[in-house]
Inverse folding.
């Protein structure tokens, strides 16, 4: 039985053991690391617009490049340890807004995401679990060939409510327009933990090439879903908190909520 009110217990742990990668040296970079751990934002480069960073110097970009590469190795458990640190206060995409004005509380976010899943999958528990397992496999790179989820839908189908998964991973990029005057539209994809291509925009000359993505050759690499419009979304004036990413997967038993070494 599908029960939206059965949230279970949301657990927190103050233990953090992420994978370490290349880092810049010196006291300045140590200070940058400290600030980023306390005030993570999405995308990662957006931290240079926050008040904590406005006075920093040219080492900022070097540090961000190093941190972005490190995050490419992080698992969902590593991200959860990162966010559960007692001094971590993520702002994600809130920008200049008050966090509570941008995002719902975590418990409310979990209810909303579960409501959307129930709606899109007609309250079919098996279908919801299958979708979330695929999502987990793609994020964690569990299957070498399957690395993409494609969702077809009309406007207002709740897809952007699931951007919380992208923002949770911090180091993400949105692909741009593909045309003959933009030969470097994919250059920002390098060194990113996850990519988004929303409302595809391309010239007609690329149609036949893009059709290959839904053909036989790519069937093992892309999982396709068709969603329907969700008119009840107009009830919501904020977004789910990206921290709900880990909680949804825990709620549906795709992962364990407890922090454990993988």
């Amino acid at each position: 039985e599908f029960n939206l009110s059965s949230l279970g217990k949301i657990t927190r742990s103050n233990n953090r053991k992420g994978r370490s990668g290349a880092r810049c040296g010196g006291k300045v970079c140590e200070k940058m690391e400290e600030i980023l751990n306390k005030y993570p934002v999405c995308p990662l480069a957006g931290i240079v617009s926050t008040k904590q960073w406005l006075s920093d110097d040219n080492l900022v970009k070097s540090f961000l490049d190093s941190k972005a590469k490190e995050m490419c190795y992080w698992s969902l458990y590593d991200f959860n340890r990162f966010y559960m640190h007692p001094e971590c206060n993520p702002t994600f995409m809130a920008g200049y807004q008050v966090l509570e004005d941008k995002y719902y509380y975590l418990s409310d976010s979990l209810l909303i995401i579960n409501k959307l899943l129930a709606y899109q999958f007609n309250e079919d528990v098996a279908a919801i679990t299958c979708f979330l397992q695929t999502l987990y496999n793609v994020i964690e790179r569990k299957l070498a060939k399957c690395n993409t989820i494609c969702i077809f839908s009309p406007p207002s189908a709740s897809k952007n409510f699931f951007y919380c998964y992208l923002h949770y991973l911090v180091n993400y990029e949105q692909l741009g327009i593909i045309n003959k005057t933009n030969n470097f539209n994919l250059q920002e994809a390098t060194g990113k933990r996850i990519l988004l291509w929303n409302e595809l925009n391309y010239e007609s000359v690329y149609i036949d090439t893009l059709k290959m993505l839904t053909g036989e050759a790519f069937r093992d690499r892309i999982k396709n879903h068709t969603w329907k419009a969700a008119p009840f979304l107009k009830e919501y004036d904020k977004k789910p908190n990206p921290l709900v990413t880990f909680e949804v997967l825990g709620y549906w038993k795709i992962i364990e909520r407890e922090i454990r070494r993988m």
The first strand starts at residue 148 and ends at 152. Confidence is low (pLDDT under 50) at residues 1-23. The radius of gyration is 19 Å.
